[in-house]
């Protein structure tokens, strides 16, 4: 009797869903800003509504890069003002598009 192993592409399985990316980004940001994740709304302004400063922004980008194993350059994030915009960029990178 021959046994066949089911081959699963580990890369395909390892790619998080959009909801997982969003939820993890909210959790990371809430931790960095010392806020309850329930108070972090995706449409909030990172600076005006959530109180993000340049140091916490760098920490957030570094955390996202590490969490999702992607490269995020500070320069490409200057114009991003909401968590929605950051999540969209992270999702693009995770999916392999630029």
Number of strands: 0
Mean pLDDT over all positions? 88
- How far apart are the first and last residues' alpha carbons, in Å? 48 Å
CATH topology: Non-ribosomal Peptide Synthetase Peptidyl Carrier Protein, Chain A
Number of domains: 1
What's the level 1 CATH class? Mainly Alpha
Q: Which outline best applies?
A: globular
So how many helices? 5
* Unreliably modeled segments: none
Please report which band the strand proportion falls in: under 5%, 5-15%, 15-25%, 25-35%, 35-45% or over 45%: under 5%
Please give the largest β-sheet.
Answer: none
Radius of gyration: 16 Å
CATH architecture: Orthogonal Bundle
Structural class: mainly alpha
Helix content: 40-55%
Q: Give the ordered list of helices and strands.
A: HHHHH
Assigned CATH superfamily: ACP-like
Note the main attributes of this structure.
98 residues; mainly alpha; Non-ribosomal Peptide Synthetase Peptidyl Carrier Protein, Chain A; 5 helices
Descriptive notes:
The chain is mainly α and 98 residues long. It has a single domain, classed as Non-ribosomal Peptide Synthetase Peptidyl Carrier Protein, Chain A, CATH 1.10.1200.10. 54% of the residues lie in helices and 0% in strands. The longest helix has 16 residues, at 18-33. The chain is globular and about 30 Å long.
